[in-house]
Specification:
Distance between the termini: 26 Å
Strand content: under 5%
Order of helices and strands: HH
Oligomer: single chain
Mean pLDDT: 86
Structural class: mainly alpha
Shape: elongated
């Protein structure tokens, strides 16, 4: 159940990040505005990595073979 909650919250945060990046690109005139999208993409990838580590550690304690 924890994995589902983390996934739903992660999706919500990712969507907010994409909306903010789109607003930065749309509303500013600086050439640096084009770095907003890759920065959000890297943040999303980092967040996915960090959120998957605890879940993977929990799963690694489960026995792989039942006797």
């Amino acid at each position: 159940m924890m994995g589902v909650l983390v996934h739903v919250l992660g999706d919500a945060v990712n969507n907010i990040g994409v909306i903010i990046a789109a607003a930065v690109i749309w509303c500013t005139d600086s050439l640096g505005r084009y770095y907003a999208d890759p920065a959000v993409g890297l943040a999303i990838a980092f967040m996915i990595l960090l959120s998957s580590l605890p879940l993977g550690m929990q799963l690694s304690t489960l026995p792989l073979f039942a006797h």
